[in-house]
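Can't paste images in this forum, so I'm doing it all in text. The chain is below; anyone willing to post the predicted structure tokens underneath?
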Amino acid sequence: MSADEKSRSVLIDSSAVLALLDRSDGAHGRAVKTARLLAEERVVLLQTTYLRVETHGLLVGRLGHAVARAWLLARPFPALAVAPDVEARAWQIVATHVDKAYSLCDALTFAFMEVHRIRRAFALDRHFRQYGRFQVMP
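Text version of the structure:
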């Protein structure tokens, strides 16, 4: 990933994807507004491969197989692999933040963002704010 791509990159969490696709979600309006602002900024939205799996599972559970399949096959943004050094950092995050209920996927995401110097996340998951190292939108 080039320095320019990193500076324009925003990680999109499964919570944001769900809010965008589920009109009954209480955060749907805020998510749509945020997506429009990001589109105007011409940011590069991305996920890790782990987030792609988590998002698909969340969509299957909440919106059904057809919606989840359509989202997955549309390939709305790149999903980047997580390297072993990022996984090692994620394990460290889980081990040291004993007062938080971070999932391993949360920790992998945080570690990926740290290693790749991605500073912004489009996320409605409270764990991003708890971690405190990124600008979280909305």
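The beta strands are 9-12, 44-48, 79-80, 120-122, 135-137. The domain at 3-137 is CATH 3.40.50.1010 (Rossmann fold).
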